[in-house]
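Sample entry (350 residues):
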Amino acid sequence: MKDIKVLVVDDSALMRKIISDMINSSENMEVLDIARNGQDMLNKLSRLKPDVITLDVEMPVMDGITALREMKKNKLNIPVIMISSVSQSGTALTMECLEAGAFDFIPKPSGSISLDIDKVKDELLLKIKTACEKVNVKSTFKTSAARVEKSVDVSTKSNLTGKIEAVVIGASTGGPKALYSVITALPEKLGVPVFIVQHMPVGFTKAFADRLNLNSSIKVVEASEGESVEKDVVYIAPGGLHMEVHADRKIHLNTEPTLWGVRPAVDKLFISASKVYSSHLLSIVLTGMGKDGAQGTVEIKKNGGITVAEDKSTCTIYGMPKAAYETGMVDMVVSLDNVAGQIIRIVSGR
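Predicted structure, serialized as C-alpha cells:
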C-alpha cells in the first residue's frame, strides 16, 4: 500500500491523466481521485482525505484561489501544490494562491495544456513528498512558539565597523509567503537597498515583485541588467538569471551555469555583495530546501558583515537556514515574525 495519497485537480482531462500517471509512477505515492474544478474538489473533500492536493490555478466554475480560500474557511488543512501556466493571469493568481496558503507551485512548461509537463515530473514528486512530510511533522508558521537558538547583540560586536549599507535575503520553498511577511513590514524609507534571491521559475518573479510592491510601503521591483542601485528599493532577482552586485553599484544579471541546481542562486548574490559592501552588509537566509546561501553566509561573515538565519520553528523547510547555521558563521537565529524588526533595528543602528 502506497504512503502518500494525492487528489489531482485540473479542468483538462488530458492534464489530469498525465499528472496522475507521473504520480502513480512513484513507488510511495498514488492518485486517490481526480476533480475537474475547485467546486468538484470541495465536494470530494467531504468524503476523501488526501495527504496532498495538486491544484490547477485557472479553471472554470471555481478557480484555484477561490478553492484555496474555501478550504481555509472550512479549516481543511491539506497541503496544496499549485499547477500554474506562465501567463500574466496565471502567474498573478499563483502569487495570490501562495499568500492564501498553498505550499508551493509547479509551472506548466508550455501553457495550460502542457504535453511536455513530464519535464517537471521530478520536481513535482519531490514537492509532493516534502509537503506531506512537513505536515506530518507539524503545521507551518506556529510563530507564537518560536524558539531562538542563538542570538547576538549586534550593537556590541567589535567587527561591525560602520553602518549597514545593504541587505541581502535568500529563500526557496516557503519563501514567497515568508518574504511577503517580511517585505510588507518594512518602512518606505529603510535607508538601504534590499536584494532578494527567491528560487522561482522564469516568468513568475515579475508577478511576485508586482504583488509585493502593491502591498508594501517600500518600493519593490524585478531587477534589470545594469540598473543602478538605489536606497529604499527592494530588488528581486529574475527567474532564470543569477543576480550580482558589482563595484560599480549596479545590478548585473547573467546566465552562468546553475549553482546547487538553481538559477538565480543565493550564494551568487551573497558573495558578490560581500565584496562590494564588506562589513556594511546584512544577510538573511530564510526557509528553503538545500544549502544555497551557506557559502555566501561564510563569505559575508569573513568580511565582517552581520548574518541571520530563520529559526527552525517558523521554516516551511529547515534546509537552507540549517546549512547556514551549521557553518558556525550565523550571528542571529530569528523567528520569521521578528525578521523585519531585526532588519529595521540593525539598519538603524539601534
